[in-house]
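Input/output pair, single chain:
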Amino acid sequence: MLGLLISLAFVFPVFALPAGNVVALWVLLSACRRPARASSGLLPKYIGDHFPTRLRAAGLGFSYNVGALGGAVAPLAGAAIASRLGGLGSALTVLAVTLTAVVALIIGFDLPARLGRALRVDRA
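Output:
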């Protein structure tokens, strides 16, 4: 969660840069992506902790495909929000903050374990 929150610190400066400052843009985008990308390496461990052995491959595939679907929907959502807010930078900031908060809440409240207990999924 800390890596995701650190990456959010770089979102606004990326869109506040004046046009033409390519080197600063590259540095800020790289700084923004590194902490978030590091957390994606934890996904197989997270899946292993929350899914029974017979469902781990399905859980991992589902997680990666939902992420890919988010990557397909995000540009459309960003354009829709930008038309209401008046700028793409503001829209992308809203998307980044909102989606990061959702992921942080899912992890913080240990939602997969709670759902597993509620549905009485066996840990075999």
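Residues 2-119 form one domain. The chain has seven helices and no strands.
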